[in-house]
Fold these 3 entries.
Entry 1:
Amino acid sequence: MSMSECCLTGFQWSGTPSGKEGKLGKLDAYITGDNPDAAIMMVHDAFGWTFSNCRLMADHLAREVGATVYLPDFFMGEVVDPQILLSGEFHKFDFKSFLERNGRAARDAEVLDAARALRALQFKKVGAVGYCYGGWAVFRLGAREHSPPLVDCIATGHPSLLTPQDIDEVAVPVQILAPEHDPVYTAELKAHTLTTLPTLGIPWDYRHYPGVSHGAFIRGVESTPGERSAMVSAKNAAVHWFREYLH
């Protein structure tokens, strides 16, 4: 499976997001929850900040962690049509050009600036979570180059565009939710993760989910029993992680 198929495949969940639209710094953002002490910045997947699955996950985290969750628009208004999920017509989407516009080099500054804007709101603790495309971004937020730290902890599910250097340089508590089948967060990256994190002197949590594939935790199929149980388990793991490090 190509990276474009991997990052665009999945299912659109049912449900109606309960938050509101506002701003985080200069960026449009979906905002949910109202805890004045703990905040989470969520970096969306390839479907962007309007994708209902991302907003529903933000709602879950806000409610179950007890946090204010910000889901900014890091694609500057560009939206990938969720119909691609439903139709499987990946060939109709130019993923290469999309990554040229929205890849790491193009969006790194916006991600870091958004975290600084969130810190400026004076929450006592700030975390970051990213699924798929958002994976590289949360590792950048947790990198040791930032002093003081931009975030207090990070979590990611089936991260994309991640490098060994990102793993080497993480300096805050980190959680990784890893499906068994993932051509993007490869076996080599998983092995590097498991050999490197114990040497960094930080709390870390690595969860392996057998039988599921890249995208399962943010675009999984609710009606598939094994996939649904993995989705619920991964969501609960992230909730527990943020409860521990944000409160």
Entry 2:
Amino acid sequence: MAEQPRVLSSEDLSTSEAKWVSLKKINWQDHRGKKRVWEVAERRTRGSSGVDAVAILALIRSKTNAFPISTVIIEQYRPPIGKFIVELPAGLIDEGETPEQAAIRELREETGYQAQGVLDASALLATDPGMTTANMKLVILDVPLDGDMESPDQHLEDGEAIVRRAVEVKNLYRELKEYEKKHFVVDARLSHFAAGFDLAERLRAGDVAS
């Protein structure tokens, strides 16, 4: 029987024991010439591409217009925050992969959807520049379906427990508000996209009053 995931304990970890991240001290000089120290975490998995990870915005469309343009979001437990989070599909880039190749692979693994092509890829993005050197790219993928919405089989790795949901893009912002009511944490990148899309729709409709 599946159990509810939970954090059992937390303790300090030395850099020598860490597999995925390391902690560094940066000695730097500010705009007044004063010497300062900054603590920073960095990934140990960055490959020759210079990009750590990708987040994926999949635009799922019907060739017969059977449903509105949609995207896929995922739910999973994240031990660092000790809660379930709703986010975009995402993953680390393997050595020898381009960000676009990694995005197509990760989308298929986590959601089952097979992209036909890449619509756009962002510039290099900082994920949390006050705390980490980690970076990423946002890749927008085209996922055409022959007719109705489909739920293809996922191809999850051992230890992954991911629930995927297809959501109409126009309803995404409202859906995330419902997740907040269910005590999910919403990933910042997903929230920013949804809020930006919703605001753009309101501005186009002239509906910007509080």
Entry 3:
Amino acid sequence: MASSAPKALPSEKAKAEQAKQKLEIPTDPEGIIDMETFNQIREMDDEDDEDGGGNEFSKSIVEGYFEQAETTFKSMEDAFAARDLTKLGALGHFLKGSSAALGIVKVQATCERMQHYGHCRDEEVGADLSEDDALARIERLLVDCKRDYRVAHGWLRRLYGDAADDGDGEGEGEGDDAALDEKEGAKVKVGEGEDAKAKEDK
């Protein structure tokens, strides 16, 4: 891809906007998480815990996804700064697969669009894009994708009792970038093998 002076990272603009907003974590995950898919993961908990009632298996998968997503977002920011559309498309494909495995459908859909924009395509209208147009669209997508991820992250943390619920459903998910870096014990990584798959699909 043609190289020019790197644009400002989208996070520099996005973080200022996100700081002004309180995330509202809904009680109903419809439109955020496909519970049919997610419950298939949770059904494995009893098999993993002979005593019953545990959720360590599914929780470890969720923790692995959090770790993966945070790392991928950082890589997306770096690729955006370098105007590396090929890398952005591959990263979109990778996070799309990991999100689909857990049923995190809103992030999945956004990442699919990023995958296409990385190839300078708008598949919704079947049109080619210029590099500048594709990068501008990805810049907006990154803001939306991070917010959708934070909402899903807040809902899942609340499900597993990892976040305080103040009763109004607001404020959860803020400052999650730092909190997720401190998470430990992720035993299972969702989407392993998607990296190789991304290379094949490029």
